Fold:
Amino acid sequence: MAGPASHPPVSAATPIVGAPRADPIGAVLLVLAGVAAAVPMAAPWRPLPVGVLPDLEGARLSGWQVVQQLSTATDPGLLAVITKWSLLLATAGGVALVGLGLLMFVPMTHRPVGSAALTVAGGLLAVGTWLLVRADPVFGVPAADLLQTGSPGVLLLLASGVVGLFGAVKALATG
Structure:
């Protein structure tokens, strides 16, 4: 009878099965989504149509300038206030996704990070949906005009939610 099977010694280079590890794919997805959510504040949006903001007719504003114009409106309605705050929260969500993406590089359990990222990405999708549904009353243009290629700010904001969802699901799947 042969003795017990000999196993090779475990070294520091041998990964332990089931041990937490970094998730670079999820990290890159979350960081890209975060940057895509923050960039619309500086990226150009669609030129404003005649009659929306009389002082700036035809001007091509950045997301931050849109927020400022919504803040200084003489009679801001509830739609303008919600739009202003949703754009600001989308930027904060982008910063949060970058931070969560950087946490994905740490070898730890990523389920809490994935849950938080899923919540933030869902919020970004809600902001994008709000912009599309309420484009006409707030911006004075139909949603189809906001989706034109001439408005990278809106497109990046919409893409950030989708990419963030993929990164969050990857984080949850990695465990």
About this structure: The helical segments are 24-38, 63-71, 78-103, 111-133, 135-139, 143-146, 152-174. Residues 28-174 form one domain.
